[in-house]
Design brief:
Keywords: Cell membrane, Membrane, Transmembrane, Transmembrane helix. The structure is a single chain. By secondary structure, this protein is mainly alpha-helical. The chain has one domain (about 1-365). It is built from 18 helices and no strands. The chain starts with a helix and ends in a 15-residue tail after the last helix.
Amino acid sequence: MSVRSRSVAVAALALFATLVARPVAAHVDYVTEDTGDPLDAVAFTVEVLSDPVNAAVFTGGGLATVAGLAVYLWVRPTITDVVVLREKLVGYGDLVPWMLRLAIGLPLVGAGFQGYLFAPTLAFDPGASPFLRVLFIGLGFFVLFGLATRIASAIGLLTYAWVLLAVDATAVIAMEYVPVLIALLILGGGRPSADDMLLAVASTPGSYYGRIDPVHHLKSFLDATTAPLRRYVPTVLRVGMGVTFVYLGLIEKLADPGRALLVVEKYDLTSVVPVDPGLWVVGAGVTEIAVGLALIAGFFTRGAAALSFVLFTTTLFGLPDDPVLAHVALFGMASAVFTLGSGPLSFDRLVGRPALDDDESVIAAD
C-alpha cells in the first residue's frame, strides 16, 4: 500500500467516525430538559445490537477502524507532511499556557455574568449572590490577563472542589476545568502574560517597580519548583481530556439512553445518517469512550485530539442551541494536546516516535 493510499484510508476512517459520532461531543444535559423514558442501559444496548443491520454497521465500522490502525502500526510509514507538522508544533510549546488561559478564562467570565457554577446546568442568581458573580468574573479576568496565574488557578481548583463536594455533585460534568487548572498551576502564565511582563520589569536592577513588588520572588521560586513537573503537563491534559470523553460516553449516553434518544429525536439526527436511533446512541457512546481511552493511553494522541476538535466543531453546527461558551475549555484542551502530543507515560512514546526529544523541555520556561 502506498503512502498516499494509506493517508486516504486513515482520512476515510476519521470521516466515518466523525459522521457516526456527530453528536458525540455534546453534553446531553446541556441540550435536554426532560429525562426521557427510563430505560435499562444493558437491555437497551443488547436490543440495539441484536438487530442484524445495526450489528453489521457497528461491527463493520469497528473492524475497519481496528484494521486500519493495525496496518498503520505494522507498516509505520514516514509521511513527510506529518513529520513537518510535528516539528512545527514543537515551536508552539511556549504558547500552550496562553491557549489554556483563553480556554478557561472566557468561560469563567461568562459563568460569572450569566450566573452558573462551571456548568450551565448549575445556575445561580447573580443578583442574589454577588460574591459568586465577582468570584467567577475575577478568576476569569485574572486567568485571561495572566496575572497571579498560579494563585488564580489554585483558587479555581478549590472553588470547583467546593461546588462538586458541597453544592452539587453534577458539577462533574464540567470536569474539563480540572486538568487545565492543574496545568496552569504547573506552568504559570506563560507568555504573553502580565506575570511575564511584571517579572521582567521587577527583576531588572534599578527599576522602580522592583522596589515595591516582592511577589516576583515568589514567581521565580515557583517557576524553579515546578520545572521538573513541566514534562508531565501533556500527560495531565490528555488524561484529563480522555476521562472527560469516557464520562460523556459512558454516563451521559450508554448509561442514560432515554435522554440520549431525546437528542437524536430533537435534532432529527437520523436524517443526517439514516440508521436506527438506538444505533446513534450506542455508536456515539462507544466512539466517545474509544476516543477517551485512546487519549488516556496516549494512543495516536494527536490524531485523537484532532478528531475531538472536529467533533466539537460539527457539534456546534449540528446542535444549534448547545451552549458554545461551555465547550471552549474542551476546544482549548484539544488544541493543547494536539500541540504537545502524548508526553511521558504513553503508548505513543513507548512504541512510536516521540513528539519531542527526550532532552528538550516539553514546555518552554515562561
